[in-house]
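Quick check before the chapter quiz. The format below is the same one you will see on the exam, so make sure you can read both the input and the output lines.
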Amino acid sequence: MVLLQRLSLYTLVFAIMALSNAAIPILPELSRGESIAASLIFSAYFTGALIAMLPSGILADRCGNNTLIRTAAVLTLTAGIILTLSNNLWMILLARFTEGFGAAAFFPAAFAILAEFEKKEQCIGELNFLLNLGLGGGVFVAGISAETSIKNGIVIFTVISIIPLLLTWKLPEEREKRDRAEKRSRGEVRRTVELLTRPGLPSVWVAAFILFGATGAIISIYPEYAAEEIGKNELGIYLSTLYIGAMITSIIGGHLKIEHERVTRRGILIAGIGALTTILHPIGFALIGAGTGLGLLGLVSGVANLTTERGTTMGIFNTCTYTGLAALPILSGIALSITSEESIIIANGILLFTAATLPLKILKGA
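Here is the expected output.
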């Protein structure tokens, strides 16, 4: 049972992330060269994930984590099929929204499942490793395979997504959990508010928002900042070190016996150092990746152990990360009209250092 769950989660997170990023190298072709359409296609995934993340966490507690994992597998395969077969903009947008819904169904339930394992830190680290491998692999494979056919990358990862779908279909129903959830369904909103405002947790939500939001903001403006210094190919290599850094620290950190609070603070600090380093050299992205890998490991491992309603808790956590990914890049883009790229990178670096000072003692007891 445990092995089947791990295989299901590991293969599915790779498929979800790879398929979502496989669209990025071919955005000009999918949007037919229209910049507004390209922005809509890119953001549709994040919008869908953001909208559905918290409801999915609540549903995971009500219907069972395995049910949500199975739903995520179906949505991911469905999105891949639509992207493969259709060139219509509205169908492509629908597919990207569906991808986002799939990610939303997956992450709260997946982290809740792994939090119940004996070696949860190791398992969460392995999941994060495959998450980043999927992100990097999606862009890489889609880019190099587009020379023969534009949608080759999407086709490849759509076929791969069949594997986790078959695995998840063998996962058992969680009837006892569903029965308990039905008895307490009336207090769902109240419990969610309690988890949002529980003493010590608001600073954790803010830390998650800043860690991923600031990272996304720097990535979004850095190509313009470094346009005159390095070429696109070289920049792509340096940006990929972010994923590599996260993969390395996810695996190493998952095997270390360190308090979740300390792992989280160190991760955020390393990300902050990396942010400021990018002003001098893009190798700073490797440090940002290493920091976000540790930060995610510490936050997820700590938060998931604080309550029995892990689905809802992880839904809140992932909502905060996706809100940060959506909001801070937009705010940074708006700020470009009044200041320089370098100033914005510095501001996001300072924001990360500030997040590292937030009171995170609640994670100590996790």
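If your answer matched, good. The mean pLDDT is 85.
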